[in-house]
From TrEMBL:
InterPro entries: 6-hairpin_glycosidase_sf, 6hp_glycosidase-like_sf, Gal_mutarotase_sf_dom, GH65_N, Glyco_hydro_65_C, Glyco_hydro_65_M, Glyco_hydro_65_N, Malt_Pase/Glycosyl_Hdrlase
Pfam families, per the entry: Glyco_hydro_65C, Glyco_hydro_65m, Glyco_hydro_65N
Location of the Glycoside hydrolase family 65 C-terminal domain: 688-742
Active site positions: E478 (proton donor)
Species this chain originates from: Alginatibacterium sediminis
The name this protein goes by in its record: Glycoside hydrolase family 65 protein
Keywords tagged on the record: Glycosyltransferase, Hydrolase, Transferase
Length: 761
């Protein structure tokens, strides 16, 4: 497809943002887009490298600690730095910097088809030495521990020596600030060096104190003809100095291999073994296998918008960065900032299940299964957390976590969000519908559905009218905490209960031995199953007759509406400018709550209720959360307001590229990246997953020329190409299938052509 991110800015604030935008990763390893040589001395930088699932435990300090509050939390450490490469020119050893001398040319790009970032520089030193410099970087999708820098220098007007000083450094700290609750304010030092060696290769080893996890960084340099090489090491840094004889062009390729004890029992030894293996490949060979990997990825995840390059760039960038951040092993998931920064301290949230998983369920189901397996692997910890909160049965998954233990110290907007367990159950059900992977549901999915379902029987209760109520929880809207009968929570709990009953029947019919094993292990009996169905049937889903909407909770509509007219822009986001109690006492939403339930759960409300609810909550939502605009876009499309949906989509697609929330420097907004894909596929194309078939209702926003994307459905690959008048649905591989398009069942054997709905339909 040939698309790439380009930004040649050297403005200090934009460079901080670009460190996140140009971040590279592979789901295991992430490296921020820092300059190898650094910046000017007075310029800020968040220099960072991260391994997914690698963490340190730190104590949580409470002024008043209550029973069941977490005592420790996990944090993602900034790990040893492999990026540093400094260039010195001529006999005077002039140090190259983009912020000294004369910059004659500068280009910077990140290519989505090759996974390679590139800087091309034409520079003249203060003493007049002129060079062309080309720096290519790659985090390998094929060799997950490998980060590589290819460094090429061409002397244009001098015939003097060139010196490159490359180092790896274990003396690093995390970024902290006291100005934003979304970024850590303490615990800068999370990792301590334990060993450092230098020679033909270099290696630093560091360890966390509390979690006792170890990480090794091993490096090697492949060079063109050199005059000499020097190796030195200190307590926490290993340096390689390469001197090139006078000549017109020199080249050095730096291989950096990261190994940690969560995947590598002997990280130092295994790091050197992998380094020896990987360094046998030159950069071109590594680039070739990287391009092949990404070609296969884009073949299954192809997505495009016709006629709007900026929107398409945002869409493709977002999907590419999702892949770079996605954990692909049993000990990792996808953090709120992925591997692009330290915001939210590397924690995994519900973002994974509600925002990210729908993308991969329908494009890369094997990757989706890895994320679900992580939740299954932490099921015992979720059971333990439920017991800690007074439940005798069931599983309560953590609101924030890295290793499966709860990290949220602010329970009102954390632990109280019980919907996390229903969100995880929803994702397992979505995977089952899209894949029909019965073996996986027997292995993992059924037990998760059962254990999350049984939690609701002890969380909720039947009131005197026989309605099933759930009290003292927080829904997705974190500006409204500890409420009764939150519409989203209740409706997702109902879905959870229904799917547990369905899966029980599925196992009883197809795999009674598996059902017997699980039931025996968790003590499940037929009486409990009947209670699930009874609770689901009696679930209280609020409806206000006078407004014709679903109230967000029992008390939301009775509160005073926030004074939006007299709240200046400088006071947003509200969470950084007002005490939580001030916010809780008002009718104001941080993000969609009722509308998210409308989107995720077909049939929960009728069309008129959804439209009226959209209008109502549109007036009281601040969109302080990056999870917000994509849901508004999807629901606007759902109720036929395609022009409005298109405006929300534009905000979603370029939220990070344009830094509209002002904090992209701390890392990319992963849920929003995934939300962009959902806007197009679930919003405009109207994709829905029925229990046994796929639904589609393609529509087009005003002024759009069209869009296209690929889906994977039960082993089949499908391409949908939407144009102003006609939509083509093509079966690229797999058996013929039934598909519902505009509420009419059709048979897809090779291709179908249907009408596209426009903004006036």
């Amino acid at each position: 497809m040939g698309q790439q991110l380009q930004d040649n800015s050297l403005e200090p604030k934009q460079l901080l943002v670009n460190e996140s935008l140009f971040a590279q990763g592979n789901g295991y390893l992430g490296v921020r887009g820092n300059f190898e040589e650094g910046y000017a001395e007075d310029m800020a930088s968040i220099r960072g490298c991260y391994v997914n699932g690698f963490y340190e435990n730190v104590d949580i300090s409470y002024g008043e600690k209550c029973f069941g509050f977490p005592e420790t939390m996990q944090k993602l450490p900034n790990i040893p730095d492999a990026q540093t490469v400094e260039l010195y020119l001529g006999h005077q050893l002039e140090r190259f910097s983009l912020f000294s001398g004369e910059l004659l040319g500068f280009e910077r790009s990140l290519d989505f088809d090759t996974g390679i970032s590139l800087r091309k520089i034409h520079w003249r030193s203060p003493l007049g030495l002129e060079i062309e410099l080309e720096i290519r970087r790659m985090v390998s999708f094929v060799k997950r521990e490998l980060f590589v820098i290819d460094y090429q220098v061409k002397a244009l007007n001098f015939d003097e020596p060139i010196e490159i000083r490359s180092s790896i450094n274990a003396s690093i700290e995390n970024f902290t600030t006291d100005d934003d609750v979304r970024v850590a304010s303490g615990h800068a030092k999370l990792l301590w060096p334990t060993d450092c060696v230098a020679g033909g290769f270099a290696q630093v080893v560091a360890k966390t104190h509390s979690s006792a996890l170890e990480i090794a960084l091993s490096s090697y340099h492949r060079c063109s003809e050199t005059q000499s090489q020097e190796f030195s090491s200190a307590e926490n840094q290993a340096k390689t100095v390469v001197r090139f004889a006078a000549g017109s062009a020199v080249r050095m390729t730096k291989y950096a291999v990261f190994t940690d004890t969560r995947r590598h029992p002997m990280p130092a030894q295994q790091g050197l073994e992998l380094l020896h293996s990987f360094s046998a490949f030159d950069f071109e060979a590594l680039a070739s296998e990287q391009a092949q990997y990404l070609s296969q990825f884009w073949n299954r995840s192809a997505i495009a918008i016709k006629g709007d390059e900026q929107l398409e760039l945002g869409l493709r960038f977002n999907v590419f960065q999702l892949l770079q951040s996605l954990g692909q092993d049993a000990v990792s998931n996808i953090a709120a900032k992925g591997l692009s920064g330290e915001g939210y301290e590397g924690h995994y949230f519900w973002d994974t299940e509600i925002y990210v998983l729908p993308v991969f369920i329908l494009t890369q189901p094997e990757l989706a299964k890895n994320l679900l397996r992580f939740r299954y692997n932490t099921l015992d910890q979720a059971r333990a957390r439920a017991r800690e909160l007074g439940h005798t049965k069931g599983a309560l998954f953590p609101w924030r976590t890295i290793n499966g233990d709860e990290c949220s110290s602010f329970f009102e907007a954390g632990t109280a969000q019980y919907h996390i367990s229903a969100d995880i159950a929803w994702a397992f059900a979505q995977y089952w519908k899209a894949s029909a992977d019965f073996d996986f549901m027997c292995e993992c999915g059924a037990e998760v559905l059962f254990e999350t379902a049984r939690l609701w029987l002890e969380t909720g209760h039947f009131n005197r009218q026989g309605q099933f109520c759930i009290d003292s929880v927080t829904g997705p809207d974190e500006y409204t905490a500890i409420v009764n009968n939150n519409f989203y929570t209740n409706s997702m709990a109902q879905h959870n209960l229904n799917w547990a009953v369905k899966m029980h029947a599925e196992l009883a019919n197809k795999a009674p031995d598996v059902l017997g094993r699980i039931s025996s292990q968790i003590g499940l009996d037929a009486a409990e199953l009947k209670q699930w169905q009874a609770a689901s049937d009696a679930m209280l889903l609020l409806f206000d007759e006078s407004l014709g909407i679903n109230p967000q909770d029992d008390s939301f509509l009775n509160k005073k509406v926030w004074d939006f007219e007299n709240t200046p822009k400088s006071k947003y986001p509200l969470l950084l400018n007002f005490h939580p109690l001030v916010i809780y006492r008002h009718q104001v939403s941080k993000q969609p709550d009722v509308m998210l339930a409308h989107y995720l759960l077909d049939g929960i409300s009728d069309e008129q209720t959804m439209a009226k609810s959209y209008d109502y909550y549109d007036q009281v939502t601040t969109h302080d959360s990056s999870l917000s605009s994509c849901i508004f876009s999807i629901m606007a499309a759902r109720i036929g307001r395609l022009d409005v949906s298109g405006k929300w989509f534009a905000q979603t697609a370029r939220l990070d590229l344009d830094n509209t929330h002002g904090n992209t420097r701390d890392g990319l907004h992963i849920a929003n990246l995934a939300g962009t894909w959902q806007c197009l596929v679930y919003g405009f194309a109207g994709v829905r997953l029925a229990d046994q078939h796929l639904k589609l209702a393609p529509a087009l926003a005003p002024d759009w020329q069209g869009y296209s994307f690929c889906l994977t459905w039960r082993g089949r690959q499908i391409e949908i190409d939407v144009n102003p008048k006609q939509t083509q649905v093509r079966l690229l591989s797999g058996d013929a299938m039934d598909i519902e398009i505009h509420a009419k069942m059709r048979r897809l054997e090779t291709s179908l052509s249907v009408e596209t709905l426009g903004s006036n339909d």
